[in-house]
Design brief:
The chain has 342 residues and is α/β, with parallel strands linked by helices. The chain is 19% helix and 31% strand. The protein folds into 2 domains: 2-215, Spore Coat Polysaccharide Biosynthesis Protein SpsA, Chain A (Alpha-Beta Complex); 236-322, UDP N-Acetylglucosamine Acyltransferase, domain 1 (3 Solenoid). A hairpin with a 5-residue loop joins strand 9 and strand 10. The chain binds guanosine-5'-triphosphate.
Length: 342
Amino acid sequence: MEAIILAGGFGTRLRPFTFTKAKSLLPILNEPMISHLIKTLPKKVDTVILAVNYRREQIEDYFFKHDFGKTILVNEEPEPLGTGGAVKFADRYIKGAFFVLNADIICSLNLTEMLRFHKKKKAIVTISLWPVENVSEFGVVDIKKDGTITKFVEKPKAEDAPSDLINAGAYLLEPQVLNYIESGNLVSMEKQIFPQIIQNTGRFFGYKFKGYWCDVGRISSYINVQSLLLEKQKKTFVTGEQCSIKGKLYHSCVGNMVRIGKTTTIESSVLFDNVNVGENVLLDHCVIGEHVEIGDGSILRNVAVGDNERIDKHANLDNSVVWNQPIPEGYPSKQIGNVIGE
Ligand code: GTP
């Protein structure tokens, strides 16, 4: 069985880290985001098709060095084709029912159970569903008792919402869905294809699950997902190899070869590899890229510092992004992704 993983977006909301890295390779508990997802795939899935574009070579290189016991095929779109276009572009690899998964969702969904549900319902499409409180920020499904989805309602007022369930970014599709998608075009699966399947087949189902769900799209959710997973593992922090930690870490993840000076406090933050933090520093809700230096006595709250940047001694930064290098050629000036639920 095949699984297509959508990992071709620019990840513009995770700037400045996606200026230098593929979003799906950003570390979560010191392991690339995409590796967490691949570990949740059922045994039955023996082939993983990575639908990639931006920073393809980094993704390819990662999978060249790491074996997941499955055939990994890197399928590069000539240009980003959107969620539907990327699926169509992988059609030559599809032999039967297949998964389509967003690379940037970390959740407790059991894909084996979802597959069982899909078969039992004889569905053409099954999508995972997650309940939210703030329905007015999302696309919400209208769903019958037996799990049939009859429509999507975009950003309804709370009182008009047909349910509290949103598309959670994991799909199971029968191959006939591919016939609905035109080749070579920018196509959104959610906006253009799903409504047609609902209308033409009536066999479009929603699979609800419990536990946790996190769309790792923004810096805030990127920090939150690490705290959530740390809590699940009953850990206060994790550190990589060859670190020298003299300060205190709370709810934080620190990569390899990181040095943290004495009387420094790191709270709810993520530090990539090769970071050097001085003495008497406070980092609170920060993400710090690779090869960053942070001078003694600095206080940073809600700050994202891109790779290779340097923060002077006694800096005081709040709610900011630090990036003083050129933006890579071809990187979009605004968000072009397919935002789940929005
Ligand atoms: P933003 O620019 O911050 O919205 O991030 P993004 O580019 O990752 O977009 P979004 O979060 O909406 O995408 C959800 C998932 O679909 C991510 O795993 C993306 O890599 C992936 N994705 C989005 N657009 C494309 C595309 O055109 N082609 C492929 N192959 N994947 C895509």
